[in-house]
Each structure stands twice: as C-alpha cells, then as structure tokens.
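seq as requested:
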Amino acid sequence: MNTPFSRARLFLNPTAGRGRTAGIADSLKNQLALVTKSLELAYSQNALDLGNLASQARRDGVDLVLVAGGDGSVHHAARGLLEETTGKVPTLGILPLGSANDFAYSLDLSKGWWQKPGWKVGWVDHGWIQLDQNPALAFVNGVGLGLNAMVTVRSQKIGWLRGIPLYTAALLQSLVMDWRKQFWKVLVNNQPLTEITEAGGILALSVLNGRREGNFDLCPNAKIDDGLFSVMAVRPMGRFRAFCLLPSLVMGTFHQGKGPILFSEGTHIVVESTEGIPCHADGEVISIPLDGIKRVEIRLAHNALPVIVGPSFSFC
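struct tokens:
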C-alpha cells in the first residue's frame, strides 16, 4: 500500500458532471484519508479557473493535486500544472465524477478508488499542441480534429445526457450538420499519411495518448506511458456507412488497416490546411473553423506527468 501524501489540494468544480460535484466536499474530505494526511479544499468558479488554481498549487509546493470532475476539469487543471514553470510538478489524482472520464479510464481509476487500497503512483506521457504560432498548450488524453471537434461542440449543447449516450447523440447530429471532407496535409514523424491523399481528403483525425475519446474506446491497445501517440484517421465515406460503423465505435472493435479507418503511431504530428481547422483537446474545444487556424502541431512529452493509477494499471 502506498504511503499517503503529506499535503494535498482538492479542486472542486461545481459545474462538472452537469453539476453533480456540487455539495460533496465534506464526504470526499472524509473519504480521502487513505490518500493524504492533509487535505485543503479549493473551489473554482468555472473550468477555466482550475488552471489558475493548479498553477498556484505548484508554486505553493503541494505534492498532490486532486481533481473531482470529468475530462474538461482534468484538462484545465493539468494545463495549470504543466504550463507553470515554478516548483516541482505535483502528482495528479483524478476523482472521475464528470460526463466523460476518458483519461481516468486509461489510468484504471474507477469511481471510489480513493477509498480502497492498491492505488499506485507513476509517470505517464502527455502532449503539447500548438495552433499556428500561438503558445503551446498542454493536454493529457488526446486531441481531435475535424468532425471529432465538431462532435465536442455539439455535445456541449446537449444538457440532458451524459456518457456514451451524450456523445452518440452529438455524433449523430454531426453526421447531419458537420459532415465535410477536409483536405489536409498530415505528417506523422515527418512522414506523410499518403493514404489520406490517395483517398481524396479526411473527415476526422484523433491523436490519442489514452484509449478513449468522447467515451468511445477507439484505441484499446494504447498505452499511456509507452512514448507514442496512437493516430487514427477517418477517410471519406458516406453518411450511411458511417452510421453502420457506430456499433463498432461504441464497442471499440475498429481494426487496423481495414475500411475507412487508418491507424498510425508517432511522437510528432503536423496538420496543415488552407481553411480553419476545428480542434479539441481532452474534450475542450480550442478552435473552430471561424478561428482560421491553418496549422496544428502536436508533440509528445514522455513520462513527464506524475499521476495516481489504479491497482490493475501496468506500467511499460
């Protein structure tokens, strides 16, 4: 069993999980006795505020940052930890209480893990994404471009669903309203994805550190500490064929090199376009077509983030 951390700070975003994290501070404080000897509470005004709180925690020398919420909350907290340059990066612990908990899933962190023995601490990969010449942003789980990003935009407008039903509904909306072939130049480790050019364009591109995107288990064999991104490109196809692929998308049964799905791996991905590229990072929209972003560069940082993982997690 791991020794509890000396000083932890718990971030609570009242809006995470469609408001489900509000009002649970007292119970969580009691439940986290196995994880930390001392726990401080920090409330954010919104998801963006988590970044500032996390930066302050790193400057304050906190050794464990706990985030109660989903992937959006984790994204902003991780950015605050990783983009801050003062002090040692605290260990990140996730209490998966959001609408999507993709990063926690890859770390084998189920709900209530903090009340059980067997959790471990280790180092995993994360990424940096740069839009045009803007400062690079940190992310932890993955990036989606094209249709993927528009699914995220749609999901944020659906307030009565969560989990796989939420993202399935958003995907169905995007099949109708956002179905557009993109003509991009895509490089993985400086090598072009020639299959994209031969197919006459691309619908969506996923660059995944973890296994899932939007609750869909896209890359079941992905390892979050192996020093590689899993890259999944969706070639052009008709809407009906895309609809027929939904069951395999939900079940995570895509197969490499078959049909319209192209898989690759790498540490450095560049996407260039003559039109604005829609993009999300960890389920948070960071650009839409009207922003006019023409170049996206993604780099991997190997074993640069200390995290708590579940008992069944196996390090490379």
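The first helix runs from residue 16 to 19.
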